Automatic annotation (TrEMBL):
GO MF annotation, one: potassium channel regulator activity
Gene Ontology BP terms: action potential; protein homooligomerization; regulation of potassium ion transmembrane transport
Region span, Disordered: 465-571
Taxonomic lineage of the native organism: Eukaryota, Metazoa, Chordata, Craniata, Vertebrata
Gene Ontology CC terms, in alphabetical order: voltage-gated potassium channel complex
UniProt source species: Knipowitschia caucasica
Alphabetized Gene3D superfamilies for the sequence: 1.10.287.70, Potassium Channel Kv1.1, Chain A (3.30.710.10), Voltage-gated potassium channels. Chain C (1.20.120.350)
Protein name: Delayed-rectifier potassium channel regulatory subunit KCNS1
Composition-biased stretches (Basic and acidic residues): 469-571
Entry's localization field: Cell membrane
Job description of the protein: Potassium channel regulatory subunit that modulate the delayed rectifier voltage-gated potassium channel activity of KCNB1 and KCNB2 by altering their kinetics, expression levels, and shifting the half-inactivation potential to more polarized values. While it does not form functional channels on its own, it can form functional heterotetrameric channels with KCNB1 and KCNB2. Each regulatory subunit has unique regulatory properties that can lead to extensive inhibition, significant changes in kinetics, and/or substantial shifts in the voltage dependencies of the inactivation process.
Length: 571
């Protein structure tokens, strides 16, 4: 068996046949190739017997069928994952058995749908608490529960490259820019990018020092040439990096919607806006006013610090925590707003009669209540009356209670995301295939013509075909069927069960030949020279198809005689 040709056969037939636990499935290969890093996705690219047998339990060459000795019920969920991109759990199955099944098929828990994710992980955690109490906090196995994040998003990006322009080059660059652990070159790029970000931040901080702030005769600030050059180099690097990411991105809309890319734009644009206005006519009053506004925009350079999130697991975990904790954050702000409103009003009524107090208005009470409830306590404003101090004590206690409840939930989420991110890096979760192997290119038309024309030449020599253009696919099939029937009749004269099966197949082929002959007749009507000969050949083909029901020597001799009689004329 040629395992290198297993998949071309399956592709030509249009379906991949899978037998999972005795249940057979026929699947479109393109559906499985949506996720090339999974077991079935890798199976479609196998080119050797050893590679095939590593991924499946057995393979039937005659039936072109892959066999897997796995749970057939879970495979229905796996098959639905290839169609929708999400896998849904089975309540009747143990969570650990389900986890082992999807791990076997190469599907990570990131792909569990949001509707099933909470139930699945809660049930799994309960089982872990019940049976795995021997683990300490340091020994507990890491949990990878969450929705699709970095690896699954990278997988989706790789799938989108298929069929796009310059897909190989773009995916090559994209992987090295987005995945620092992909190769040595990607690690070098990550280190260089991190160094430039840190250099830009240090230059921005040094620029604020008095020693580097000079003025000309008109008391106009002069930029330090070294810091200006350093900032220009950093901005040039950021600009080139952003443009390259933009060009090779698989989806432009999704790329521009990512928070990290928005941060990149916000940290680059103020520099170019300021540079454009500084090079314009400075005598124009409008431009000078706009330039003052742009000077404020230069404060946005501090956003470059957030670019460290590309290289920091902690910052990415913090961003994921805030993104998934908007309800808890909203609850925290609501509690603070209610408490600030109540205690600012109470402190106003308690302190308004005292002339030495700084809390004579409710807005000033807002500031005091905010720093008190958050336990900051600047000390710039404080109550002086006994009633005010009692209210301040209640405000502090209330602030501790209000902050403790939501912050504990937010901290637990942050700890979970941080541990998951660190575990992903330390345990080396399987990443998507980096590059699909190139299959050799074959032209079916050229291969067919190279093998067909010598065959037609042999027939022409025997007097059956006069030229290359005097035949078609239907007549060739008829001739092949006739030769097969003649060989069968000579070898086996008795009507056996095998002959009956062959005759039924011949009948089906004959019906198909009749349909093809009718289509040929319609096409040949347009050709005035060949119409009469084609009609005669089609009628004789129909008569021959009806006579295929009787498997006798007399019918076969008549068919052979008719074939050779009509050959020189009809063909």
């Amino acid at each position: 068996m040629g395992y290198g040709q297993v998949l071309p056969h399956a592709a030509s037939e249009g379906l991949v046949r899978l037998n999972v636990g005795g249940v057979r499935h026929a699947v479109d290969p393109q559906t499985l190739l949506r996720f090339p890093h999974t077991r079935l996705g890798r199976l479609l690219r196998c080119q050797s017997e050893a590679a095939v047998l590593e991924l499946c339990d057995d393979y039937s060459d005659p039936e072109r069928e892959f066999y897997f000795d796995r749970n057939p019920q879970v495979f229905l969920c796996v098959l639905n994952f290839y169609r929708t991109g999400h896998i849904h759990t089975m309540e009747e199955l143990c969570v650990f058995s389900f986890s082992q099944e999807i791990e076997y098929w190469g599907i990570c828990e990131f792909s569990i749908g949001n509707c099933c994710s909470n139930w699945y992980h809660e049930r799994k955690e309960n089982q872990e608490d019940r049976h795995w109490d021997c683990y300490s906090d340091d020994q507990a196995p890491p949990s990878f529960d969450s929705s699709m994040e970095e690896l699954s998003a990278l997988d989706e990006d790789l799938v989108k490259f298929k069929g796009a322009w310059c897909s190989e080059l773009r995916s090559y660059i994209w992987l090295r820019l987005e995945d620092p652990t992909h190769s040595r070159s990607s690690k070098i790029l990550a280190v260089v990018s991190l160094s430039v970000v840190l250099t830009s931040i240090v230059a921005m901080c040094v620029h604020s020092m008095p020693d580097y702030q000079q003025h000309d005769k008109n008391d106009k600030p002069i930029e330090d040439p070294v810091l200006t050059l350093l900032e220009g180099i950093c901005i040039a690097f950021f600009s080139v990096e952003f443009v390259v990411r933009l060009v090779v991105a698989p989806s432009l809309c999704r790329f521009l919607a990512k928070p990290l890319n928005i941060i990149d734009v916000a940290s680059i644009l103020p520099f170019y806006a300021t540079l454009a206005l500084e090079t314009a006519d400075e005598e124009n009053e409008d431009l000078q006013n706009v330039g003052k506004v742009v000077q404020v925009l230069r404060l946005m350079r501090v956003l470059r610090i957030l670019k460290l999130a590309r290289h920091s697991v902690g910052l990415r975990a913090l961003g994921a925590t805030i993104r998934h904790s908007f309800e808890e954050v909203g609850l925290l702000l609501l509690f603070l707003s209610v408490g600030i409103s109540i205690f600012s009003a109470l402190i106003y009524f308690a302190e308004k009669e005292d002339q030495d107090t700084d809390l004579g208005t409710i807005p000033s009470g807002w500031w005091w209540a905010t720093i008190t409830m958050t336990t900051v306590g600047y000390g710039d404003t404080c109550p002086v009356t006994v009633a005010g101090k009692i209210i301040a004590t209640l405000c502090i206690i209330c602030g501790l209670l209000v902050l403790a409840l939501p912050i504990s939930i937010i901290f637990n989420k942050f700890s979970k995301y941080y541990q998951r991110s660190k575990a992903m890096e330390s345990q080396g979760i399987e990443k998507p295939e980096r590059k699909d192997p190139e299959l050799p290119y074959y032209s079916i038309r050229d291969l067919f013509s190279e093998n067909l024309y010598p065959f037609l030449g042999g027939l022409a020599y025997r007097g059956s075909v006069s030229s290359k253009g005097d035949t078609d696919a239907s007549s060739l099939k008829d001739m092949e069927m006739s030769e097969k029937d003649m060989e069968m009749s000579e070898k086996d004269m008795e009507m056996s069960e095998k002959d009956m099966e062959m005759s039924e197949k011949d009948m089906e082929m004959s019906e198909k030949d009749m349909e093809m002959s009718e289509k040929d007749m319609e096409m040949r009507e347009k050709d005035m020279e060949m119409s009469e000969k084609d009609m005669e050949m089609s009628e004789k083909d129909m008569e021959m198809s009806e006579k295929d029901m009787e498997m006798s020597e007399k019918d076969m001799e008549m068919r052979e005689k008719d074939f050779w009689e009509k050959g020189p004329r009809g063909l």
